[in-house]
Amino acid sequence: AREILQHKNCEITNHPHSLKNKIFGKRKKVTVVTAAYNAEKFISRTIDSVINQTLGFDQIQLIIVDDHSSDNTKKIVSEYLAKHKNICLVSLHKNTGSPGTPRNIGIELADSAYITFLDADDWLAPGGLQELCNILDDTNDDYAVGKTIKVQSASQSIIGEFASVKERRSISPYDVPHFFYHMGPTARMVRLSLIKENDLGFPEMVFAEDKLFFFDVLFNAKAVSTTTKPIYYANRTDENTGSLTRETNVLDKRRSDLKVIEYIKSKN
Description:
This protein is of the alpha/beta class. It is built from 10 helices and 11 strands. The chain has helices at residues 2-6, 19-24, 43-51, 73-81, 100-109, 128-139, 192-197, 209-220, 244-247, 250-266; strands at 10-13, 28-36, 60-66, 87-92, 112-117, 123-124, 143-151, 156-159, 168-171, 188-191, 224-235. α8 (209-220) packs parallel to α10 (250-266). It starts with a helix and ends with a helix.
């Protein structure tokens, strides 16, 4: 990610670190990072869910990293840029093949109190960011997670229910039963200084890159909180056929899980 930014192998519109932003902009409460690739069917709903947050969009920096899409994703995002200077579009010159590097670019560009990740085919509950920000403000914890609702064409269910089954404040992540079972990027917010100070980032893996990242976050977190409030909607409808979760075959997923296990064992 740093190499791409350093060598300008991308085009950045509404750069968060531009002189204009430094002079006239104010530091945002939270950065939302979205890695996008051929997301034209869903990206508008994703962006609108961030704009319509009860927290107030003036408190939010939305960084969308387009991983060299071949469809109209970039064009759709560009239509939002003139109206909203706190939406940053990073257009990569080459496809990276993984959500890891685009998310790391978002981390590099982020300058806020907190950071969260939103996939380009998913959307946020209207009060999601407000809820997690309030928790981190009140507790001074490093990490907060709420309810993720998996939306399928015929039903809805909760992902990682143990992480949102009750209200918990300022506890060790090791005190939450089954807390490490679900380490996807959904419905969680992290204090940005924890990531920056420990130089954390996503590995370049097609699957399970988020597990490694959030394990590192939790290994370094002093305290975490959980809430029962709905935060995030994961799009698993029939029309969403292009998600990496569905495209990655079972054997490749298990190989990635083994890498995660070996990594955790190496941490002793």
